Amino acid sequence: MRPLKIIVLAKQVPDTRHVGPDAMKPDGTVNRVKLSTVFNPDDLHALELALNIKDRIPGTEVTILTMGPPKAADIIREGYYRGADKGVMISDRRFGGADTLATSYTLMKGIEKLAPYDLILGGRQAIDGDTAQVGPQCAEKLNIPQVTYVEEILELKDTEIIAKRRLEKGTETVSSPYPCLITVHGSSPECRRRQAKKVMKFKYARTKTELSSRSIDELFIRLNKEKTYLNIPEWNVEDLNADTTRIGLAGSPTKVKSINSIVLTANETKHLTDSDTDIEGMIKELIIHHTIG
Ligand SMILES: Cc1cc2nc3c(=O)[nH]c(=O)nc-3n(C[C@H](O)[C@H](O)[C@H](O)COP(=O)(O)OP(=O)(O)OC[C@H]3O[C@@H](n4cnc5c(N)ncnc54)[C@H](O)[C@@H]3O)c2cc1C
After folding, report:
1. CA–CA dist 24, 43 (Å, integer)
2. Is residue 208 predicted with pLDDT exceeding 90?
3. What Cα–Cα distance (Å) separates residue 135 from each residue in 48, 123, 129?
4. Which of 129, 139, 166, 207 could form a disulfide with 146 if both were Cys (CB 3.0 to 4.6 A apart)?
5. CB 29 less than 6 A from any atom of ligand 1
6. What is the CATH topology of the domain spanning 5-246?
7. CA–CA dist 148, 130 (Å, integer)
8. For 221-246, what is each residue's pLDDT tens digit?
9. Within 10 Å of residue 30's Cβ, how many Cβ atoms?
């Protein structure tokens, strides 16, 4: 089997375990500066699937592609530490405030710039927007087949990939020709840990925006000049030759009007045991209130 070129779509997301009252801006977009961030969990599963293919087919190349603010370069470093070969950062203020339509357009432009490729792997969904639309939209825009909810790659042949999909009531085995886009389900294997050697090798890797920051240590600038593998490529609107009417807020028909935090009060909650009487009572109540049935 020939080596494959794989692109992993990975997003830096707010750590939803620590969301405070100022998590959203008045315009309904995420106030990213106020939130600590993590590698989107499903995207770590996608990275593992890619690295597993690399283990099975030597010479396979794994590239992480992310769109986000300058800080999202953490995602690329994290990918390097776990075994990715390359990383590309799409960053420009004009990409900010994107909905899924604008995000998938922008990622599609980045993927086209990275072509040729055999596989694009992404998470099933991101934990901040939770739409699960970006992967499928990218496939549509690239005009390539898509396989969603994948939990295992069963076989890699020269002309097709065979994958197992996780469905609500079982699994489904499907095949697709290359190139194709796969979204990865959280039931697939956990991502491998960082490797100490790779952390040592890539911990100084920086984008040009990071290197131009006033607070950057001179050591990072010197090392990035000496060792070019440390330079994380960063693409802006012009690099992608992107249509400015299709990116960022301007290219986003979706507007999040308000976010409500629902906190149940004591009289709105009910404690039930797993006894037949309690469960029967609950079902009757749900039917009476037309919640079900
Ligand atoms: C509360 C809330 C509600 C929202 N509702 C909507 C809505 O109804 N409609 C809408 O269009 N937008 C909505 N958005 C905006 C949406 O979150 C962003 O557009 C986001 O950039 C992409 O959508 P997602 O997070 O849902 O990604 P998903 O479609 O859930 O992501 C799937 C996969 O695509 C890849 N991916 C996604 N974003 C990136 C990225 N920036 N870089 C690299 N890979 C990426 C990852 O592999 C990810 O696992 C909402 C945002 C918030 C905070």
Report:
1. 23
2. yes
3. 17, 8, 13
4. 139
5. no
6. Rossmann fold (3.40.50)
7. 15
8. 999 999 999 999 999 999 999 999 99
9. 18
Q: How many residues does the chain have?
A: 293
Instruction: Kindly state the tokens that stand for 129.
Output: 């927007």
Q: Is 88 in the pocket of ligand 1 (CB under 6 A)?
A: no
146 lines ligand 1 (CB under 6 A): no
Tokens 């979706």 sit on residue: 254
Listed residue (131, 140, 135) closest to 150, CA to CA: 135
Please work out whether the CB of residue 134 comes within 6 Å of at least one atom of ligand 1.
yes
Report d(CA 14, CA 31) in Å as an integer. Answer: 9
What is the rounded distance in angstroms from the CA atom of residue 1 to the CA atom of residue 15? 39
Predicted pLDDT of residue 110: 98
How far, in Å, from the CA of 208 to the mean position of ligand 1? 26
Q: For residue 259, give the ligand 1 atom closest to its CA.
A: 1
- How remote is the C-alpha of 212 from its chain's centroid? 26
| pLDDT attached to residue 293 | 67
- How many Å apart are CA 260 and CA 244, to the nearest integer? 32
Element (H, E) at 102: helix 100-114
| pTM tops 0.90, yes or no | no
**Calpha distance 73→200 (Å, rounded):** 17
CA 149 to centroid of ligand 1, rounded, Å: 16
Give residue for tokens 């499903």.
42
The predicted pLDDT at position 36 comes to: 86
Look up residue 91 and give its two tokens.
């960053």
Ligand 1 pocket mutation pick from 19, 49, 103, 130 by most atoms within 8 angstroms of CB:
103
The answer to whether the CB of 48 falls within 8 A of the CB of 190 is yes
Distance CA 227, CA 85 (A): 15
